Amino acid sequence: MRRKTFDMILTAGGAVLIVVLLAAGGLGLWGHSFANSNVHNQLAQQQITFPPAAAFAHAKVGTEITPSMIPTVSQYAGQELTTGPQAEAYADHFIAVHLQEIGGGKTYAQLSAASLADPTNTKLAGQVATVFKGTTLRGLLLEAYAFWTFGQIALVAAIVSFILAGIMLVLTLFGVLHLRRVPEDQEFPKAKGAHVPA
């Protein structure tokens, strides 16, 4: 095979790879934008607001704000819940804490089984209903957080694709320059003992 033909194949392959990487980067940006806007819009419709900053000044176990919430939830004090990280904080560090208190550390499934075994216990039935609602809301918020995380992964993938496309562009340009310097009759691989023109 002639060296020039081989170099042309590699250069064309590099050009195709650039197009593929740019397309992948564009799709990654679209995925990131879609995930972020979808999560924002869905959460904004719920109109959930974090407790105000003043509530965190009097954190106490057994109240709306416990000391365990200060490092994670207080950073969003007074804000409307519209992002993935906010959803995760609200679900895991606000709702989950209250669910533990309401259910005495038991899960919805455990409370429900106990309620079925004792159908006349209205207090337990109330706990079951509350824990069910809280668990459902917590699950929905964590789904929003997961979807938001996929959007962040798509953004990172897009950036990596664009960087690789830039690197391939430079390598392809070097390939084009090298292609111009290769003699028409040079073979690849070079035959042993062949004279290489200066």
Order of helices and strands: HHHHHH
Care to count the β-strands?
Answer: 0
Query: What structural class do you assign from the helix and strand content?
Result: mainly alpha
**Strand residue content:** under 5%
The tally of helices reads: 6
Mean pLDDT, rounded to whole units? Answer: 89
**Uncertain spans:** none
Radius of gyration: 30 Å
The number of domains is 1
| Oligomerization status of the protein chains | single chain
Span from first to last CA? 21 Å
The global form is elongated
Task: Sketch the major β-sheet.
Answer: none
| Percent of residues in helices | over 70%
Describe the structure.
This protein has 198 residues and is mainly alpha-helical. It has one domain (3-181). Helix content is 72%, strand content 0%. It has six helices and no strands. The chain has helices at 3-46, 53-56, 70-73, 84-103, 108-117, 122-181. The longest helix has 60 residues, at 122-181. 17% of the residues are buried. The model has no long low-confidence stretch (mean pLDDT 89).
